[in-house]
Amino acid sequence: MKKRSQKRKPGTAKANLKKQWQAHWKEISKKFDEAKREGRRLFSLSKRQYETSLRDLERQRKKLQSDLRRLAGRGDLAWTDVKKGFKAAAKDVDRAVKRAVADFRKIP
Questions:
Q1: Within 13 Å, how many C-alpha atoms sit on residue 59's CB side?
Q2: Which long-range contacts (CB under 8 A, 24 or more apart) does 37-43 make?
Q3: pTM for the complete prediction?
Q4: What pLDDT, in 10s, does the model give residues 27-45?
Q5: Cα 31 to Cα 43: distance, rounded to the nearest angstrom
Q6: Which residues have CB under 8 Å from 16's CB, separation 6+?
């Protein structure tokens, strides 16, 4: 049996509970801040990948447009000679666009 002098003081349980909740709050707050930093890091990384992909696609698009303009000015004989190369370049750009779109969709 406990002596009266060893009994808890009034409010001790409340104070202990308050300390537990404060410690729990600090832990949750720390995890939230970590999640926030990680989210920003992933967003920044995704944004850089997106911008790089768009620059590459824009470069390919401009080259294809330039090739088309150059070919349009040539005669029929020249057109038939280079048509195969133009089709291959167009397919490359098409694949690059599809790959970029797929990559963008993968980004969480």
A1: 7
A2: 42/108
A3: 0.51
A4: 998 998 888 888 888 888 8
A5: 18
A6: none
Total count of residues recorded for the chain: 108
Q: Is 11 left (phi over 0), alpha (psi -120 to 50) or beta?
A: left
Pull the structure tokens for residue 44.
């920044």
* Exposure b/e, 41-53, CB count within 10 A at least 16 = b: eeeeeeeeeeeeb
**Hey, what are 61's tokens?**
């698009």
Give residue-wise pLDDT tens across range 40-99: 888 888 888 888 888 988 888 888 888 778 777 766 666 666 777 777 777 887 888 888
